[in-house]
Specification:
- This protein is an alpha/beta fold.
- 37% of the residues lie in helices and 24% in strands.
- The chain has one domain: P-loop containing nucleotide triphosphate hydrolases (Rossmann fold), CATH 3.40.50.300.
- A six-stranded mixed sheet has the order 5-6-7-3-8-9, sandwiched between helices. A three-stranded antiparallel sheet has the order 2-1-4, with helices on one face.
- α5 packs across α6 and α6 runs parallel beside α7.
Length: 255
């Protein structure tokens, strides 16, 4: 599904900054993978390179065997809109639109029939438990409901790959748990491939495996297995070994 082959990223300037170094990564279809590491480790650059926001300096990124970085601007816009789904920390929803209008936006841009858009939005909203807020504006709903709406927008066009960048960063613990359960549901029911960047062990433990990155290089990798508490503790221990500030290494035990 996703392959990164010897990917490096250098930001040019008076002092060039190497954000990624020789990254090799494979993610199979239907995988749920978390990316973790200290601040400045290259997590977001890694996600941006996959999403085509950033272009690798060397190496290549393949999604379903194709390199999106070789597409022209129009083809690339279509690729992002149809093949990728995005969930952000700050939601990135439009406050002037209703929840329903925000959810169907990717379909609107593809000129899908209104009836089809409404049916898809209703079905997704029921799955995510937000059908009652479809007519409301974004400023009228809670943070947790807003992020659920963002998840629905990311899933409405049935993307091959969903990229989530700190999706629980602005939420309280209950809303965070709800959103992670929603992402897990999408992964299990629709076999959607999920790539999650997070600094929160509580969020990462929902994934099948965690890939740790440090100083732009792959550091280590752990898999969930059968025991979630053991998995959670391994995440905590690995983060502690990597170093970082208190924001990066959280010691709260799973509920």
């Amino acid at each position: 599904m996703l392959q990164m082959k010897q990917v490096s990223k250098v930001y040019e300037g008076k002092v060039p900054v190497r954000a990624l170094s020789d990254i090799n990564l494979e993610v199979e279809r239907g995988d749920f993978v978390s990316i973790m590491g200290p601040s400045g480790s290259g997590k977001t650059t890694l996600l941006n390179t996959i999403s085509t926001i950033d272009e690798p300096t060397t190496g290549e990124v393949l999604i379903d065997g194709n390199n999106p970085h070789q597409l022209n601007q129009n083809e690339l816009a279509k690729f992002r809109r149809r093949q990728l789904g995005f969930v952000f920390q700050d939601f990135n929803l439009l406050h002037t639109l209703t929840v329903e209008e925000n959810i169907v936006l990717p379909l609107t841009l593809d000129n899908k029939p209104v009836k089809e858009m409404k049916e898809k939005a209703k079905k997704l909203a029921e799955t995510l438990g937000i059908q009652e807020i479809l007519p409301k504006r974004i400023y009228e709903i809670s943070g947790g409901q807003t992020q659920r709406a963002a998840v629905a927008r990311a899933m409405i066009h049935e993307p091959k790959l969903v990229l989530a960048d700190e999706p629980t960063g602005n939420l309280d613990s209950k809303a965070s748990k709800d959103v992670m359960e929603m992402l897990t549901l999408m992964n299990e029911q629709q076999n959607t491939t999920l790539l999650l960047v997070t600094h929160e062990p509580q969020a990462a433990m929902y994934s099948d495996r965690v890939i740790f990155i440090r100083d732009g290089k792959l550091y280590s990798e752990i898999h969930r297995g059968d025991n979630q508490k053991v998995y959670f503790q391994k995440i905590i221990d690995t983060l502690a070994l990597m170093g970082g500030d208190d924001y990066d290494i959280q010691t709260i035990r799973p509920q």
